[in-house]
């Protein structure tokens, strides 16, 4: 359906000093996760009965899902309204979404007390339609499947008819044929999954906000809102493109390629529109609920001002400037501010705004919780790097040195 | 070709989506608040003997220190909360104006009429029984702890140090005792009239009479009568409840808004299905001319071959 002739494996050396560092980080996260699985959450986290959720939920899960929004936002732009000039951004965005959700699930499994029951929401006897979390669970499980299906053509394109397994050689021919078959046929019905991915994303991105609506009595009014679902959806939509920009510029730098400014500059024009829509909704909501007076110098209100200013207004005004959109460095900074702003928002909603009734000490993560969170980000980058080196994801630029 | 495919996938995805149509079911009013049981706690009667704490652990087969050890009043030095090792605790508030000496305050799960934990639970492990108790089924639980985040009274406690089978722990109103015609263990052991088990609507009448018959003794507030839609556990006190660490709450249930949002968005799964159809139409209508020709797919096959 869509011509991916330009995308090619980068055939780059895998290990660099930076990659070794990320490997060590990822390894330590896995070790800490192992300790958690043997001795329980109590040993490695600062969670307690007042603060049942920490950064593994606020960052690994809630922020992880938001930052994977590049997948559905780019699918909408490129495949549904056919802005095909941005095609080069499609596969990297899909890969980020696929890996993003994969690591969301891994992070969630580390946090769940009874992780082996994670499939329970699939059983009709346990369906609980009142729970926003049930909706999130069902959508994420379906969407992650959709993302892997959408990724099949990329594998098929590279390996059709040349599967070369080390031991199971007898499988080479049938698998090669299967991939060739998928490669030629999947394009015809891929649009089913592309649309499904967008619908599912709208549903669970918003439900991740809706699930905090229930927590009204324990949340700071600067963040609790009856329209949290809408705000989560709009912020996810706003962060999708900035995430793709950050990632494209980071990949260009890491693989020593020329930044794709001819695509990224026009692409960045959408960001202030989407970010503006989100910010306007936030401001309208705060005004209608008459809660501006809570910006009173308290710790929460300082976090609020920082979130809105550095993660919202500043990048919004920066990206209005054509000059900034043309500069790889400044575009990177502005897009990164949006990304960090949305992460900050999720941390604020899930942790800073959350006020337990009887626990006086504010939750702060242990070094182990922080290492697991950072380590899983490192793990995502490591898998991303491996895949773009071996599969046709990033568009090869012949002018690259 | 494409048009036919389009309708085929619409049918297929409709079937797929209907699997989740449980989300679209109408919001059910869960229980009849006049038909549930509960307990009335009268703080002015409580002497802080803490025998209820012992009886509770004993009834739930938890590690239970001998009854004599509960005579130790040093625990009152700190404000305590129910936790994974005990579903109810009595706290002592020193030198309250309304009593000569101290005011003893028992807390446990409130067994809300509209429980936030039940609304939150992703797998219906927490359930509101028709006759009042909010119960927990560990076998279903995935350990997400959303119930704990949601509870406006901060009651559910977690076994953070249990690596394999951690349980959400909270008072179950002694449902296994209720099932065999007994009353909750804490009520049974109470040596004073601090705890009264009965039909919630009767308990409210009793509480009103107590307040009316003893002018000046009680504050005119039955905590739990209207808080967040009402709770099975009711309290009367001679001191305002906010001075006894009870949260000040509005009357409206916290579950109504999130549940109506949830059901509004997913009503019979029609809105997502319509959104799917809309996106499908946009996708078709905005398709550039060069690609609308029927041979698009075959041309891409040619390219690959």
Q: Could you give a quick summary of the protein structure above?
A:
The complex is a heterodimer of chains A (401) and B (305). Chain A has helices at 17-39, 41-44, 55-67, 70-80, 90-111, 132-159, 172-210, 228-254, 261-268, 270-288, 299-320, 322-326, 328-352, 367-390.
Description:
- Chain A is 67% helix and 0% strand.
- In chain A, helix 4 crosses helix 7, helix 5 (90-111) packs across helix 6 (132-159) and helix 10 (270-288) runs antiparallel to helix 11.
- The longest helix of chain A has 39 residues, at 172-210.
- Chain A has a single domain, classed as Up-down Bundle (Formate dehydrogenase/DMSO reductase fold).
- Chain A has helices at 17-39, 41-44, 55-67, 70-80, 90-111, 132-159, 172-210, 228-254, 261-268, 270-288, 299-320, 322-326, 328-352, 367-390.
- The model of chain A has no long low-confidence stretch (mean pLDDT 94).
- With 401 residues, chain A is mainly alpha-helical.
- Chain B is α+β, with helices and mostly antiparallel strands and 305 residues long.
- Chain B folds into 2 domains: 1-20 and 266-287; 33-258, 2-Layer Sandwich (Alpha-Beta Plaits).
- In chain B, 32% of the residues lie in helices and 12% in strands.
- Chain B contains 11 helices and 9 strands.
- Chain B has helices spanning 2-18, 51-59, 116-120, 146-150, 175-179, 185-189, 200-213, 256-265, 270-285, 289-292, 296-304, and strands at 37-42, 89-94, 102-107, 126-128, 134-136, 157-158, 168-169, 195-199, 233-236.
- In chain B, the strands form 4 sheets. In chain B, strands 8-1-9 form a 3-stranded mixed β-sheet.
- In chain B, strand 2 (89-94) and strand 3 (102-107) form a beta hairpin.
- In chain B, helix 1 packs antiparallel against helix 9 (270-285).
- The longest helix of chain B is centred in the first third of the chain and has 17 residues, at 2-18.
- In chain B, 41% of the residues are buried.
- Chains A and B meet through helix 1, helix 2, helix 4, helix 6 and helix 7 of A and helix 1, helix 3, helix 4, strand 6 and helix 8 of B.
